[in-house]
Amino acid sequence: MANSVVKIDNIVKRYGELLALDHFSLDIKEGEVFGLLGPNGSGKTTTINCLLSLLAYDKGDIEIFGKKMTPVSYDIKKKIGIIMQNVAVFDELTVYENIDYFCGLYINDKKLRKQYVEDAINFVGLGDFRKFYPKKLSGGLLRRLNIACGIAHKPKLIILDEPTVAVDPQSRNKILEGIESLNRDGATIIYTSHYMEEVEQLCTRIAIMDKGKKIAEGSKDELKRMIKNTETVTVEVLGLTQSMLDELSALPHVYDVKYDGQKAVISCSGGKHNLIRILDTLQKKEVSFGRVYSELPTLNDVFLEITGKALRDKED
Amino acid sequence: MQIFKLFMKVLRKKIFTALIFVIVFVAISIPMAKNSTTEKAFKDTRLKITVFDDDNTPESRALTDMIYSKHKRVDIERDKEAMTEALYFEVTNYVLVINKGYSEKLAAGETDGLLTSYHIHEWFSVVLTDQLLDSYISSVNAYTAAGCDLSEAVEKAGEAVADETEVNYTSFNKQSDFGRSAGGYFSYLPYILISVVISALCPVLITLNKKEVRFRTNCSSIRPSSYTMQVFAGSAVFVSAVWLFIMVIGTVFIKGSIYSGTEWLAVLNSLIFMLVATAMAMLICSFTPTENVLNIITQVLSLGMSFTCGIFVPQSMLGAGVLSFARFLPAFWYVKANDMLCGKEAFDSSKLAGYLLIEFGFAVVMILITLLIHKLRYNSAKPAVRSRSSELRAQN
């Protein structure tokens, strides 16, 4: 079994009366891409700040690489890379100088640093822009620079906090490929995002947070199995009568039918061949229908069902 | 030394405004300081003067010659309109008409109706010319009353007023070798020190403390004490370089030799004021102003202090109200110390030490206020910072 890279044990963090983290625990293993999901205000950033010892907590323990993490654990900090949502670079330095500066906060050896900086530039594909100042870079390139600054020192643990916000699709793909590549090279990743498809694509394990608590944890499939919905069938159909709707509701494994006059959304829980049964029923009643979709539950469905709200329904 | 190098790189990008200040200062202050009045440079004021001699006698011609020997002769048309224009446009400063019958009246000991004068401004040189003429006429009358004939009296009166008065500046500081030109140069320093330090140092500190990059730095393995020391070292190198440059310029262009004697006290005074300017910059940075606001602050502080504390206008010419206000500004005490070193005030080492200590006190107070602001911000800002600092304290 892989070693624990991050072990958060029962931490409690209060901001005055507000309970920001409520007996929160996590165990992230070496080589994992761990997704931390939750709406704004759920405690993700507080967790990361506690993890980095930028914030003291009232109760509990945090261990990183098997050692207790404290504000003066510089040997641990050396192995951590941070990529935050807001681009944190100096407008006064070129691409190369920025990466060199942030790498230099960890690596003193000049030769080694030079090599690392070159590796980081090549990794994010900024080779042609090394002498550019950040203001001359597009939003996507700027994000890549932000990532390069966070990973140039080749950290073993990389924390990415919404790194793809406001990034064009091409740059987003490049970033996601980069994260996968970093993981293949041995880095453990903690990834927070509002984009479910990214989390689904990247993360091997996911924790869902709400109101400072961990409300679910597991792989994508494990999480999806936790909810009632296993399949949603949508049928474009006109003129369905109430008796038809009742008949559809009575089908095995169907637990909910919604109809707006143009399409019927039928939610199923477990079972096989749900789609065939639904279409058979419609054909027997000689109801003509248009397009038909069958969708498996997404993380958003999981999140919606577990927390009772959509992931992006609330902004700070 | 990553942070120190970063400081210098950012400074290179932000130093342009400061360089302009320095260049303009050097370009203006050196000629001004060099042209400032010295003991050797004293000269009598010479007016542009026009004399119309309606009497045309040997006595009136003697008066004309005496006047032209002391002032610059300007010939204009004898016409009321032309005279008015010439006076208005300052072609001439003073028109004197020696009235018909001047000699006769002078011989009779009369003083009224001898001369008629025209001038626009009642400025000091006009008053002095009136006094000269009065003195001349009085002398002639005195000599004639003493028994001299008129021509002899005119000759002796002319000799009497021809005597040049020897002028010596009184300096309270007899042993001072602190020249007026060097004193003038040093008196302008607060303006340039404030302008340069705030306009260059503040943008660098604000850039380094930008929230996002500071967060990334805090997450790194660099120790906070090392970070602070490197920023401090960068600031110290910059302000020291500015101060040294200004001192060297003063030595080379104003003095022409190494500072000596009391000049070293002026150097010390400027060094303390540099500390004041640095503390001021740090205090301003703690409010993280935008570039535009920073420019306004720089101008308000540098020009405001310059006009109210005696940098651009001597303290002796400032009103009591202004001076009372200026006492609460560090530049006031800098100028007081500099004036004493220039000899404008009697040299008193204990008083001078007091002025320097008050200046230094301003620097200390500003640093303490800066620290207090940081502390208050720590307490009121995101708990992340507060908690981290408390944990650090606990660990120490």
Please describe what this structure looks like:
The complex is a heterodimer of chains A (316) and B (396). With 316 residues, chain A is of the alpha/beta class. Chain A has helices at residues 44-51, 74-77, 95-104, 110-124, 139-151, 169-184, 196-202, 220-225, 242-249, 274-284, 299-307; strands spanning 4-15, 18-29, 33-37, 59-64, 67-68, 80-83, 157-161, 188-192, 205-210, 213-218, 231-237, 254-259, 263-268, 289-295. Chain A has a 6-stranded mixed β-sheet with strand order 6-7-8-3-9-10, with helices on both faces. In chain A, strands 2-1-4-5 form a 4-stranded antiparallel β-sheet, with helices on one face. In chain A, strand 7 (157-161), helix 6 and strand 8 (188-192) form a beta-alpha-beta unit. Chain A is elongated and about 75 Å long. Chain B has 396 residues and is mainly alpha-helical. Chain B has 17 helices and 4 strands. Chain B has helices at 2-14, 16-35, 58-70, 80-88, 102-107, 124-145, 150-162, 180-187, 189-208, 211-219, 224-255, 263-285, 291-309, 320-326, 330-342, 349-380, 383-395, and strands spanning 48-53, 72-73, 94-98, 115-118. A 4-stranded mixed β-sheet of chain B has the order 2-1-3-4, with helices on one face. Chain B starts with a helix and ends with a helix. Residues 381-396 of chain B have low confidence and may be disordered. The interface between A and B is medium-sized, with 33 and 30 residues.
